[in-house]
Amino acid sequence: MYMSNLSKHEQRVRDELIDAGFTKSALKKFTAKYLPQVINKDEHIGGAVYGRYSETSKGPLNWVEGMLVATDKKVMFINHKPGYTNVDELTYFIVAGVKYVSAWPFAAVTLHTRMGDFTLKFASLVCAKRFVKYVESYSVEDSKGRVNHENGGSVKKMNKDQSKKPITLDDESVEFLNSHDTGVLSTINRDGSLDGATIHYIVDNNSIYFVTKSDTQKTHNILANSNVAFTVYDRDSLKTAQIKGIAEIESQPTVKNIVFTEIVKPRKYGSKIGLPPVSSLEKESYIVFRITPIKVKFTNYKKDQ
Description:
CATH architecture of the largest domain: Roll
CATH class of the largest domain: Mainly Beta
Strand content: 35-45%
Number of helices: 9
Shape: elongated
Structural class: alpha+beta
Number of strands: 16
CATH superfamily of the largest domain: Pleckstrin-homology domain (PH domain)/Phosphotyrosine-binding domain (PTB)
């Protein structure tokens, strides 16, 4: 009776989970039933593994169910239970490696990414092997408009903006940007809608850098779609810089330390001096992004009057 109530999409996801090594009992797990809601109709599962992970550092009693799913478009870490859902979507570009350790009859799987590690314990050994094999060997032909993630590319199809070459900021734009430290960053959500956030930033070597938590909406948006817009406005001078660019994770430790040190400096907020909110982040809980401009529009409205 349950099978007859499944839609074609749900049945297809179910079949692909079976191919990934899921048993009948595993298909009844809460996350497995939820999975069709986050798998697109043109997306296919190549590997999936379920297990338990710790949400805190207090030990095994705090472990909860989780699932790692690798598709032909992305990798997802899913924590879904009644009344709560958290889905981390990761492009193959930020996947640094994957491994599993066998402890019969179970396995422990760790996905290493630039956002940090995702580890599942008490996982199915069969699922773990297939998941690791798929992630390690994943590649897509260029004829499909994608590039091999093993060569540092994104599995997402390049759009027109990403194919444009970086441009050099002119002196007037650089001077204006350097005279400010906050702006509005616009990113694209997975449903195509826009999100905006005010950020602190610095400019160096023709790039714009900012720091954010690894689990913010803008982080998830950028990892799924690297196209961003950045706007800085000065009310007194009536000057505006509007920038379109490509946002990428900055991986150089020296650059990351310099950016973080500069951004966490005390600033004036109204009549008081204080530290920016990002200064409270714990070590390794933040990401430094670099925006490479591909289009810039600098406007001086006073000059145009």
